[in-house]
């Protein structure tokens, strides 16, 4: 599959995968905090690795990244990324407290973030698995808080040798006045992109 010259039909399928996955993740988040969470229509794009940091405000922006490697019928990597303020809002939703988003993360906050990321990413992957009828296994999540450029260099180095594009799904979750900007970055191998399309009859 040639991601450099992807046609509109294939891109529409990728966008639909992004929309369904983000919707599933929103449902999981609602159940987790036992409260209604609204989701704005996700923005789905196929971007080169070098352009990804700009989507979160630049390479030096501090972000929380939760990374899972994928295997089974689909190989690759998935990352759920949040800017620092959104990460604080997400923790506040879970534990039911209100902060100004500028305090340091406690050990409990970090543990909660790791678990949230695991649940949200898992919900995303389970919808992809159900849609394609393929088995997808994910590793234990690895969480890091660092500059976006540093965190995003991991998939760029790992997958740069087989391609330089990632599927980015930018989602905004809202609960009351709190807004969380979340970024799903799905990086299947080129072979896996082909398998996804074949499973959907394309």
TrEMBL record:
GO terms for biological process: chemotaxis. Residues 66-144 form the Chemotaxis phosphatase CheX-like domain. It holds the Pfam family CheX. Coiled coil: none annotated. GO terms for molecular function: hydrolase activity. Residues 9-44 form the CheC-like protein domain. SUPFAM superfamilies: CheC-like (SSF103039). Gene3D superfamilies: CheC-like. PANTHER family: PROTEIN PHOSPHATASE CHEZ. This is Chemotaxis protein CheC. It comes from Anaerosporobacter mobilis DSM 15930.
